[in-house]
């Protein structure tokens, strides 16, 4: 039993423009760090399938999926919103990224691996039921969660989103579904300017001021997430693993270090062991400083492997 590492070559072919921080180099940096740390050969490596329309329609409207398919350009770039664009390979990259969440769910819920990390892009947690946003086209974590509920009959799932940006797309999809709890820390006020005033029994939104570091995150996890999760007793834990709250990240202003991502991952493993038979499906979201992303993500994956 090990950790699955799920990716696909097409995740390297989605390019929004030559200098965009959400770049294919992010995937390569993580993989290289895993190889350098001697971790890659300990992982069970899988190639992601594509997500089917049946799987995507559990979380996105059919019209939205149709619109994305129709928008896919033969050449050049098509702008979907202020921050998100599609090139000729973007549709395939996004379909394989959601497909990674499907495969990760199958592997973890069938007991073939202890846990899984989906090393995919574009990210997903800003994509809502019928909208792209913030570099995201399809919401991969939501697609995995919906698959777990539809195919495996899972009744309670917690998503822990430690990306520096609020997981507003995930909230949009699950806010009225009592089976899904979202625990999200995020810099506030900040993009996407949502989440600070929408807390409920299953939407555990914890806005944090700019320049927050270890202490604020540990307080959020221990005093906000932990009691909610202990009440909810999730059967499996999903993670929107964004590494853009790292001190070196150029897009945000938080102060986490590699060590803090070890602490966060250990926290998640502990609650997964307590409530969910250790079952964790983690997916890459943000993280834009390549060396920091490589170190923080490989530290996260190392903890998943232990
Ligand atoms: Zn982010």
Textual characterization of the structure:
With 306 residues, the chain is of the alpha/beta class. It has one domain (3-305): Histone deacetylase domain (Arginase, Chain A, 3-Layer(aba) Sandwich), CATH 3.40.800. It contains 9 helices and 10 strands. The chain has helices at 25-36, 53-57, 62-71, 90-109, 140-152, 168-174, 214-232, 258-275, 290-305, and strands at 3-7, 44-47, 78-79, 85-86, 115-118, 157-161, 180-187, 203-208, 236-241, 280-284. The strands form 2 sheets. Strands 2-1-5-10-9-6-7-8 form an 8-stranded parallel beta sheet, with helices on both faces. A two-stranded antiparallel ribbon has the order 3-4. A hairpin with a 5-residue loop joins strand 3 (78-79) and strand 4 (85-86). Helix 1 (25-36) crosses helix 9, helix 4 (90-109) packs across helix 5 and helix 7 (214-232) packs parallel to helix 8 (258-275). The longest helix has 20 residues, at 90-109. It is globular and about 50 Å long. The site of zinc ion (ZN) has 7 residues, from loops.
Output the strand order for the largest sheet: 2-1-5-10-9-6-7-8
CATH architecture assignment name: 3-Layer(aba) Sandwich
User: Major beta sheet, specifics?
Assistant: 8 strands, parallel
**End-to-end gap:** 11 Å
What sort of overall outline do the alpha carbons produce when their principal axes are compared?
A: globular
Strand/helix succession: EHEHHEEHEHEHEEHEHEH
- What is the CATH class name? Alpha Beta
| CATH topology type | Arginase, Chain A
The percentage helix is: 25-40%
Radius of gyration: 17 Å
Number of domains: 1
**Mean pLDDT, all residues:** 98
Number of helices: 9
* Relative strand content: 15-25%
Which secondary-structure class do the elements indicate? alpha/beta
CATH superfamily: Histone deacetylase domain
Bound molecules: zinc ion
Poorly predicted runs of 5 or more residues: none
Number of strands: 10
């Amino acid at each position: 039993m090990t950790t699955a590492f799920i990716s696909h070559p097409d995740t390297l072919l989605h390019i929004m423009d030559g200098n965009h921080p959400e770049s294919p180099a992010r995937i390569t940096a993580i993989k290289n760090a895993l190889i350098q740390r001697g971790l890659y050969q300990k992982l069970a490596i899988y190639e992601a399938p594509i997500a089917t329309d049946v799987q995507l329609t559990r979380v996105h409207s059919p019209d939205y999926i149709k619109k994305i398919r129709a928008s896919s350009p033969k050449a050049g770039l098509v702008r979907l919103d202020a921050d998100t664009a599609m090139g000729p390979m973007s549709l395939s990259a996004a379909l394989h990224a959601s497909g990674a969440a499907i495969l990760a769910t199958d592997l973890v819920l069938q007991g073939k691996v202890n846990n899984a990390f989906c090393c995919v892009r574009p990210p997903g947690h800003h994509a809502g039921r019928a909208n792209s946003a913030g570099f995201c086209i399809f919401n991969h974590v939501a697609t995995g969660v919906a698959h777990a509920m539809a195919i495996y009959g899972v009744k309670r799932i917690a998503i822990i989103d430690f990306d520096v940006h609020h997981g507003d797309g995930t909230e949009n999809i699950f806010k009225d579904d009592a089976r899904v709890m979202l625990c999200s820390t995020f810099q506030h006020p900040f993009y996407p300017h949502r989440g600070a005033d929408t807390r409920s029994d299953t939407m555990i939104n914890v806005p944090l001021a700019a320049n927050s570091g270890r202490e604020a995150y540990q307080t959020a996890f221990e005093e906000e997430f932990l009691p909610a999760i202990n009440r909810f007793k999730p059967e499996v834990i999903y993670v929107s693993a964004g590494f853009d709250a790292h001190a070196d990240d150029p897009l945000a202003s938080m102060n986490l270090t590699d060590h803090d991502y070890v602490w966060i991952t250990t926290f998640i493993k502990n609650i997964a062991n307590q409530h969910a038979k250790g079952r964790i499906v983690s997916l890459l979201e943000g993280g834009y400083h390549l060396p920091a992303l490589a170190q923080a993500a490989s530290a996260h994956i190392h903890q998943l492997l232990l």
